[in-house]
Design a protein that fits this description.
Elements lengths: L1 H34 L2 E13 L2 E12 L2 H21 L7 E10 L14 E11 L2 H8 L3 H5 L3 E2 L11 E3 L3 H26 L3 E10 L3 E4 L13 E15 L1
Pfam family, one: SIMPL
Protein name: SIMPL domain-containing protein
């Protein structure tokens, strides 16, 4: 009789244990399902900014059969180019003489046919300044150099590319733009939650997109680097928990 009572008691304990275990497992499933109730949204932040640095290279050439005369002509062109920049209000200290290339056509190993001009000398001058408006104004008057007899060269894109405008203060904008992108993402999640009868909870996961510097105006054949006004954009992807 005693053994039967013990057996019944043990069975009862096991049954209670199974029931309790089942309840815990059930709660685990509910929590897991709640944990998977998320919504993934993208938050956008944009700023229109103005470039704060301009870099412009000009390449010009002189040619002839007398090297001394060619170099004299090139020095005159250099003076004209330097005056062009200083007349535009750019300090002489911002003007830098870069590469000087001298080509002797007679020394070319693989030339064919007679040489009409023996020497070709090319000089590259660059200006680097934060006075971007003055560079932009000067770039509109580059034709005056041609009128003054300066032979501009498109070789290596020195002249043809025009000035490049750079925005250097991106790090100053990042904290504010990340916060705005996050807020915009939460607004989108809140709308989704309202439609589904839920409310937005904590952030489950967040992925910050790359900051992009884009042209403010989409103009064919005019890249971002050629435009003073630019658009900075970041898109963040954020997963929010949804709660009842």
């Amino acid at each position: 009789m005693r053994m039967d009572i013990l057996g019944l008691a043990g069975a009862a304990v096991i049954a209670v244990g199974i029931a309790a275990g089942g309840w815990l497992v059930g709660q685990g499933v509910v929590e897991a399902r709640l944990g998977n109730r998320t919504v993934s949204v993208k938050g956008l932040s944009e700023r229109e900014v103005k470039a704060d640095l301009a870099v412009w290279s000009l390449r010009y050439v002189a040619s002839g059969n007398d090297l001394t005369e060619v170099l004299r002509e090139l020095r005159g062109a250099t003076e004209t180019v330097t005056s062009f920049f200083t007349d535009a209000g750019l300090p002489a200290g911002n003007i830098e003489m870069l590469s000087l290339d001298v080509t002797d056509q007679n020394a070319q190993l693989y030339r064919s046919g007679p040489v009409e001009v023996r020497y070709i000398v090319a000089q590259t001058v660059a200006v680097r300044t934060t006075e971007v408006d003055k560079v932009e104004a000067a770039s509109q008057k580059v034709g005056t150099l041609v009128e003054a007899g300066v032979v501009l060269s498109n070789e290596m894109g020195a002249f043809g590319s025009g000035p490049s405008y750079v925005f250097t203060r991106l790090n100053d904008l990042k904290p504010e733009m990340i916060a705005e992108a996050t807020a915009n993402a939460r607004d989108g999640a809140a709308q989704f939650a309202t439609d589904s009868g839920s409310r937005v909870g904590a952030i489950r996961n967040a992925s910050q997109g790359l900051f992009q510097i884009l042209p403010a105006t989409d103009i064919p054949n005019m890249p971002e680097s050629r435009q003073i006004t630019k658009t900075v954009r970041v898109v963040s992807t954020i997963d929010f928990f949804l709660e009842d």
